[in-house]
Amino acid sequence: MPRPILATVDTSSLAHNLQIVARRLAGDAAGVPPSIWAVMKAHGYGHGIAAALQGFSQADGLAMLDLDEAVRCRELGWTGPILLLEGFFEPADLEVLSHYRLSTAIHCAEQLDMLERALLRVPLDAFVKLNTGMHRLGFQPGEYTDAFRRAQALQSAGVLGAVGKMSHFARADDDAEVTRAQLDCFRTVTRGLPGAVSVCNSAATLTPGLAAGVADGDQWVRPGICLYGASPFADQPADSFGLRPAMTLSARLIGVHQVPAGESVGYGHTFRAPRAMRVGIVACGYADGYPRHAPTGTPVAVDGVRTRLVGRVSMDMLAVDLDPVPAAGVGAPVVLWGQGGPSVDEVASACGTIGYELLCAVAPRVPRRVL
User: Is 41 part of the annotated catalytic residue set?
Assistant: First the structure.
């Protein structure tokens, strides 16, 4: 039989989370609520392109990084807008964007140079990106108006179609003052420039009133992690927003034994049994994408009962405390995160990281099942 580990993706949870976001936006909006780009970068945050596309079938548009993944969405039947968040990287990409009707971010002068030399059969819709303080991608405030005017000239020449404005918040999850400063910068620099606006990530989208105050006209939000059932906030769990986990990483016990008091478990003997205890061995390790640095105490569920990881995570196995689950034996079900177990955010917090990383890191060798 196959090794007993499985990543289950529930597309109904993806659809549910999209509806939760849409309802929150509608409740905040005084007029027409913002349109939603469902962000599907990193192979749909590790959930798979086909599964994410199925779950987000009611989104207004899709946003991602990888050109091949965008083409795959078209081949799977998606006919709505697709935005490439990093845009294109070389002139040859432009014909592909034009052929598949892909929209693009424009964040540097080199991209404008390539567009000015391009001969495209179908014009590209674009968002010109402003760096408002993230200092990652985007034109500096003093450069932005000239860049936008160049994009408008390309629009007049038939190379670009609709031209909008975008930016990205650095601290919408934890610092309202920084976010307000970025938003003020965006408003000041783009004042008087036409086109749609897109600035809100998951945290900004879920913050009451923030998206409603960004723009009066055509606005697109870009939720990512919240659509997959994890929270962008360290102090607000996903279920407090009504979100459901879309991925469950599960396995089974493949070994159970008694560890005498004072004996140690696993590589490096990082855990020593304080008393005689039962320990279970789970068919999951860092080669499956579970973090090697997960410490003793990281939550896990065995046979529906919450317990903890003990000792160091190995390549293919990890150990759990079975004292809270006295009836559990070989073959008992284990939930590492997701439905029926701890949230991915709880596991990530115990490991000193974020749920995004864990979802994206599930290894290709882990079998997938899409519901």
Answer: yes
